Amino acid sequence: MTIHVRDLDPHSPADLDGITAVLRAAIPPMLVTPELLRWQSAAAPAAQRHRLLLAEDEEGRVVGRGSTGLAHESPEPGLAFCNVYVHPEHEGRGVGTALVTAAEEYLTSLGARTAFSWVLDGERDLRFARRAGWSPSRSARFLRLDLTAPLPPLAPPPPGVELRPAAAFAHDPRPLFLLDAEAAGDEPSDVGAELDDYEDWRAHTWEHPLLDRDLTTVALVDGVPAAFSLAHTDGAHRYFTGMTGTTRAHRGRGLAKLAKHDSLSRARAAGFTEAFTNNDAGNEPMLAINEWFGYVPAAAEVRHAKSLG
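Above: the chain's sequence. Below: its structure in token form.
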């Protein structure tokens, strides 16, 4: 099969719908819409040098997607990412090879030294990564929760703790930026992140097209944000936890569980029927919380790395 790799045209409905279909088929727990892809193409930080690639077959059908660029939030220079997904109906025909090759050539031209990639935890995908020279490291799990079933009961907030939606901070979300920056800095990862640019955070987290500020819950301790659970939704029936975290001074008090319970409860009341999340396999505290809620495995990925040059 002849494969043609090119950049996504964010103004082409066919391109946007084609990549959306690929991602929904290849990794169903991922929340993706054409509007999200258009935004990702237009709003990527300049320092990221982001490219959204698509692979077409000889009939012009979109059969794969690649996302690649520099890890601009990492304090260590020379790190990059390359994430490729192929439509399950077109695996084994050279689609992944074409996308990975194009991404590696692009990253090498930028001077990247090491690239990281999430690879689906299946025999075919892992074998492909090994053949392409990528080495496995940590793993992550997508989890699913049936929101049509009742949530386990949880005691109300203790004295001094208040739950509020993120929408209450619309006039000044900076306190949420400070909370997110501290929590994200401690997340398990091969590539560390330093969130130190408020305007960048505002553009790419607060203005994210799937962010639901009404369903995102913030736990305040004596009036100061201490924990949060960030909600993304597809505007229909699917909900995804984009991030849940707590400041270091308030960990171990159950505030993350409290915030997430409130967010999920309100999502359920609003008619959402499925909730998804993604956790690093080494994030035991968050995995324990999600197990308590009743989340079950939906998919898994293995982080891989490759030296470029």
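The CA atoms of residues 152 and 293 lie 6 Å apart.
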